[in-house]
User: Which sequence fits this backbone?
DNA sequence: CTCGCAATGTTAGCGTCTCTAACATATGTT
DNA sequence: AACATATGTTAGAGACGCTAACATTGCGAG
């Protein structure tokens, strides 16, 4: 039953002597531990199935402990999603490596990474975009999202041989974003059952990229 | 404070003598009343802010009453979303009226209606598509959604001069759906602040329809 | 008509959840 | 060493989901 308990603490990055930690009053880095617990639970049970109490049990602390680090449940989620958005952006930047500048393949790669993130970290993705907006409207999240969109805009501009972000570039970028965004939702909801592996997905993304980039 | 109370009952479709209803033990049509209360509250406070207790207060019954009509909270939401999906489909069918068969304008009209619904009934929309999927996986909802997609496929086929739903038609339909789906989310999240009125939206939808329909 | 049953309400209460208050313990600065 | 602050704990208030037990109503069969 409690085989999973305290796991969050145990496999923390800076694993000091586990025995030493055992009889500690203080957790070490409870904030990080709770964020990690939150992430796991949201992925496992979904955004609405998540409870602060569960996170406390997983982190091995009392249910009042989180409130020394976060204002409320919502702030815990914001902190967790924040980290996810950074991963999201880093993944997208990494996906561009080795693909020649100005190639539409870069757009495809970005879209592919976007969808992959939405599918693997669907809890984070849905928290950010799936309708908890009313409560999850932290300006830092807004900012992080716009930063990611900036990457797309830059690539679109390059493909269109523009030196700056014109209205046309912005329009095309937004259309591309709409597409991969919707695709992410629909794929996770299994609306396209017959969608095979990555090959078919990439073909789809490539097709879209070309349709959106041409005149 | 209770100016809104019992509103749900008061303005019901079949408004009998209000005075007569007042001293009634039975509600009349509590099931319908609760669905309507649920719809209002979800639109007002968002899917996660909704509580059965609130719905009871709005409908003017005790907090145990709903469980004579619905298995649990989730079934209340399913029933409410179900009605929304029917409205959604009817709206889309109505949007086609007067537009010549085989015209891409029909695709645009469908997309426009899709987005309009997502924006006006965003609570319903997000419940259906925004990540409550794990709990909201009623097969009837699945079916309703596929019915709506069928409308799109039929129109795409007509525009492509196909007599049946080929793989190509299905692919284009899915891409179109992805687009308007993602657009709906992003527009509500105000990701496109500069998006003006309907005119600009329609222009965007028209552009997309043409890009997706051509070879 | 009325008797009885099924349908549909109500009240009371359990367990859980979020969050706060009051108190306890650790940490680190002087 | 002593104190201030940070970070934990326990206890509990108030809301919610849901169930059990009981009350009222509507309706069909005798």
Assistant:
């Amino acid at each position: 039953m409690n085989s999973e308990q305290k796991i969050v603490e145990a496999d923390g990055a800076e694993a000091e002597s586990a025995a030493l930690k055992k009889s500690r009053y203080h957790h070490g880095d409870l904030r990080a531990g709770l964020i990690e617990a939150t992430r796991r639970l949201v992925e496992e049970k979904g955004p609405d199935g998540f409870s602060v109490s569960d996170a406390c049990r997983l982190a091995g602390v009392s249910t009042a402990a989180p409130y020394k680090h976060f204002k409320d449940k919502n702030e815990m989620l914001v902190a967790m999603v924040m980290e996810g958005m950074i991963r999201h952006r880093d993944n997208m930047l990494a996906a561009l490596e080795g693909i020649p500048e100005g190639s539409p393949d870069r757009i495809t790669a970005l879209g592919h990474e976007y969808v992959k993130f939405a599918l693997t970290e669907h809890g984070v993705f849905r928290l950010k975009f799936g309708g908890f907006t009313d409560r999850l409207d932290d300006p830092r999240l807004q900012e992080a999202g716009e930063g990611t969109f900036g990457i797309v805009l830059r690539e679109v501009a390059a493909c269109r041989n523009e030196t700056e972000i014109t209205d046309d570039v912005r329009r095309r970028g937004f259309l591309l974003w709409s597409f991969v965004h919707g695709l992410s939702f629909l794929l996770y909801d299994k609306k396209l059952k017959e969608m095979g592996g990555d090959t078919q997905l990439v073909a789809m993304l490539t097709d879209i990229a070309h349709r959106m980039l041409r005149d």
